[in-house]
Amino acid sequence: MRTTNGRPNGRGGHGDGRAGADALEIAGLTPLSSCDWPGKLVATVFLQGCPWRCTYCHNSAILDPRTPGVVPWQDVRTLLAKRHGLLDGLVFSGGEPTMQPGLVAAAQEVRAGGFGVGLHTGGAFPAALARVLPHVDWVGLDVKAPARLYDAITRRGGAVPAFESLRRVLDAGVDVQVRTTIDPTVLDAAAVTELAAELAGLGVRDHVWQEVRREGTTSAYRASLDALTTRT
Ligand code: SF4
């Protein structure tokens, strides 16, 4: 399948990792961030496309993998070339970055340029994640819920690949922070306790809870949050 700009697109995360970095469909570029990789000053690229439709997603504009990118990879190259000594690294975020076959080449290029490589992922594509892990220094992995509640958040399933991805990251020994956004419309106190225990049992040492942000979410979701507040 090809995008409107004639470049191969990794929809479905089945790319073999041999596409060039210029094939990346980039929805946005943040030139400086101190929060996308804890303790590091980074630039962050947001890659187009995600297979999930999470209740609390505030990135709805970048979910459709058929939408072409708006930032050429060359702009990222140029930025990094100017920021030697100022930036620690580049974070690939999304969307779901492992959907795109150009990710491996891009990560290799960033590292070869002397920068660290960070990756935000929900773990939807364990095989694609495994291909890029040797070229990644840090992973921010979203684990959204205990497996039984995954679909209530993503509305596209995903528990099996997400926990498989967690296993692969832990087995690879890559520095990882597992993050869980607490969706109060799905996760109650028992589910939070259950997930914390499950992650600890799997060997996760760095797990952070995040509050849902209302900004950018759908009006229906904001109404469901309001309904919860009204009831309490
Ligand atoms: S995985 Fe992230 S980008 Fe994809 S729908 Fe969920 S919150 Fe949005």
Short account of what is shown:
By secondary structure, the protein is α/β, with parallel strands linked by helices.
Search tags:
single chain, 232 residues, alpha/beta, TIM Barrel, seven-stranded mixed sheet, 7 helices, 31% helix, globular, binds iron/sulfur cluster, iron, 4Fe-4S
Radius of gyration equals: 17 Å
Distance, first to last CA? 49 Å
Mean pLDDT: 92
Write down how many β-strands occur, each being a DSSP E stretch of 2 or more residues. 7
**Low-confidence residue ranges:** 1-15
| Annotated CATH homologous superfamily | Aldolase class I
> Strand order, biggest sheet?
1-2-3-4-5-6-7
- Return the CATH architecture: Alpha-Beta Barrel
Shape: globular
Domain module count = 1
| Hetero ligands | iron/sulfur cluster
Beta fraction of the residues?
A: 15-25%
Level-1 CATH class name: Alpha Beta
Structural class: alpha/beta
Secondary-structure element string: EEHEHEHEHHEHEH
Share in helix = 25-40%
How would you characterize the largest beta sheet?
Answer: 7 strands, mixed
How many H/I helices?
Answer: 7
Enter the CATH topology name. TIM Barrel
What does this structure look like?
It is a single chain. The chain has helices spanning 73-82, 103-112, 126-132, 150-154, 159-172, 189-202, 219-231, and strands spanning 26-33, 42-47, 89-93, 116-121, 138-142, 175-182, 207-211. It is an alpha/beta fold. It has a single domain (11-231), classed as Aldolase class I (TIM Barrel). It has a seven-stranded mixed sheet with strand order 1-2-3-4-5-6-7. Strand 2, helix 1 (73-82) and strand 3 form a beta-alpha-beta unit. The chain is globular, with a radius of gyration of 17 Å. Iron/sulfur cluster (SF4) binds next to loops. InterPro entries: Aldolase_TIM, NrdG2, Organic_radical-activating, rSAM, rSAM_sf. Keywords: 4Fe-4S, Iron, Iron-sulfur, Metal-binding, S-adenosyl-L-methionine.
